[in-house]
Amino acid sequence: MTEIRGWATHGPKQKLELFTYQAGTLGPEEVEIAVEHCGLCHSDLSIINNDWAMSQYPAIPGHEAVGTIVAKGELVKGLKIGQRVGVGWNADSCMHCHECITGNNNLCSEALPTIVGHHGGFADRLRAHWLWAIPLPDALDITSAGPLLCGGITVFAPLVIFGVKPTDRVGIVGIGGLGHMGLKFANAWGCEVTAFTSNEAKTAEAKSFGAHHVVSSRDSTAMQKIASSLDVLIVTVNVSLDWSALLKTLKPNGRLHVVGAVLEPMPISAMDLILGQKSVSGSPTGGPAMLATMLDFAARHKITPQVEHFPMSQVNEALEHLASGNARYRIVLDADFD
Question: Which of 123, 95, 144 is nearest to 34 (CA)?
Fold first, then answer.
């Protein structure tokens, strides 16, 4: 039986404190991972604050964990002790429903989020079903790979799901934790990329991440100038926007795709969709196969998130830094329990 130490919150909006729990017997299809680094995602903050009304306490956040397998159950396939792996938003799924057997395990109705009803990666150890422990390519820098497992797959998945072509023109709305990786992936995909930002001071940075053009989302004239020019628009922010203005930037058959957790209803006119045959869609992260593909693509194209590091013992300071909007652009916690 393993005793696991982690940083847990015991209620909504409470600071994280050191917490120890008995993990019980390792399941036959589980692996136990010694966590080395774990990304800090805005979704962790949402779970800590119970913004989505789904949190279960005590909760150890952390769902962008990377580390080394130190134990495995007798039915684990294809993984070995000492192998470096990463665990993202999900730690388990049923493995037998239609979604699981077609590779969309992340859409399984019984998928187990790594940080809801399950203790996450702000800890010295993390457990997950072997299929959700994704091997890390040797070419990836393990110290910055964690954010790829949630933020990275979130912006990569739409490129695959909707068959985005290298000849397409793609817009990325929001140059933050998700958006800066969206620019990198879309550029490496071969697309012409337009960044939308409310902060014009980010123009040079957006171009360094792969944007060919940068548009102020607060400048109605600039938005009008690019009307009917984009094939796909990926929205990475979690706040309400001028949806009508954004839809007008799309070509006929264009798609506005939402990956940011906007909590307010989105007022969209049917006529804005009908005229031009446009679509609005959304997606979560991705299944194990897509995660592995994304990591391989990132390694091949040397795509790494821009990260800031904090010792895991300073997790509360890191959370404050994230909540203040000052993170540039992802935060990684380095395990320091010893």
Answer: 123
Compute the distance between CA of residue 62 and CA of residue 288 in angstroms, rounded to an integer.
18
Structure tokens at 64: 């962008």
- Pairing status of strand 330-334 against strand 307-311: parallel
Q: Which two tokens stand for residue 208?
A: 């360094």
Domains of the chain: 3-150+286-334 (3.90.180.10), 152-282 (3.40.50.720)
The number of beta carbons lying within 10 Å of the beta carbon of residue 15 is: 12
pLDDT digits (tens, 9 = 90+) for 147-197: 999 999 999 999 999 999 999 999 999 999 999 999 999 999 999 999 999
Output phi, psi for 154, to 5 deg: -65, -40
Residue type, 177: G
DSSP string, 64-81: SEEEEEEEE-TT--S--T
What tokens were used for 111?
Answer: 């998928």
- Whether the ω angle into residue 21 lies within 30 degrees of 0, i.e. cis, is no
201's CB contacts (< 8 A; 6+ apart) are none
* Total-model pTM: 0.97
What CA–CA distances, in Å, run from 265 to 82, 92, 240, 273?
46, 30, 8, 17
Question: What does residue 275 show for φ and ψ, rounded to 5 degrees?
Answer: -75, 105
For residue 7, count other CB atoms closer than 10 A to its CB: 26
188-214 in b/e form (b: 16+ CB < 10 A) is bbebbbbbbbeeeebbebbeebbbbbb
Tens of pLDDT along 292-314? 999 999 999 999 999 999 999 99
Which CA distances in Å does 255 have to 49, 217, 241, 277, 282? Answer: 32, 18, 16, 9, 10
Query: Among 206, 207, 140, 138, which Cα is nearest to 175's?
Result: 206
